Amino acid sequence: MTSWIPALRRAVILATLACATASHAQSVAFTFDDGPRLETTPLMSPQQRNQAMLDALAAHHVQAALFVTCGFGADKPEGYALAKAWGQAGHALGNHTMTHPDLNDAKLSVAQYRQEVQDCDRITSTLPGYQKWFRFTYLREGNTPEKRDGMRAFLKQSGYRNGYVSLDTSDWRLDEKLNEVLRADPRADIAPIRQAYLSHLRQRATAYRDLSRKLEGRDIPQVLLLHHNLINALWLKDAVQQFVDMGWTMITPAQAFADPVYQLQPERPAPGQSLLLSIARTRGMGKFEGWKRIVDDGDFEIEAINAAAAATTCSQCR
Question: Cα–Cα distance between 256 and 182 in angstroms, integer?
Fold first, then answer.
């Protein structure tokens, strides 16, 4: 009569473990910096690039965030319309300064940097989806403790959340290569760049997931940094699908920022890059396995692309 009880108990335990695993599955929020850009690129107009990114997110039902650098386009009617389209599509819009200066620049004062934030806020605050989120340019909080603490105090007094990034990427570097190749030859084979881009995102995602486990003992909700550029206009849909195929769950930036890890404030003199990398340095972790691939700014992928191009050229010359 009771022979089925152990089997039932085992089934309940397995189901409970499955639910626990699902509830703690790796998650990621998509965020984009430096948009909307009105610069000219090969293949697509600014409007086409903007729409392609919005279409890619919509195809996967992803609610993202755009951190607006207002001087790159939002301060003009045509650029403002592109930023507005993000808010109308259900995405959040944050502040990424007016002209993208570097707070690590010794010639830039905290007062000047604060003014950059305030000038941009006058534009972003009128957009649908506006959030009082600020992301430091270059992810650098200042070259001195005084700058760091001065900006932190300003953000707190102004009601701003620091739009931290945990999953930093060098998509901008690969985008530069993409534009360089296409300007030299509009009919160039760009499939190797697409592959390098996707491989780069996978490598960074895995590395930062592993780092979060070392630091926090768990998979934190990752905040991914990409940019408003041509490479994402072309292949963002593929990038999201890759995360899906990896078993990652898409969440909103607001959901990610609700995690306690995004309340941490690294105390090293000049935090920058990924929040996780800053925490690691603050805790004295030093160099760890795989750290070079996290901080190489896409050098590995660029070298692979160049090597493949050189091999192709050599084979054609034979």
Answer: 36
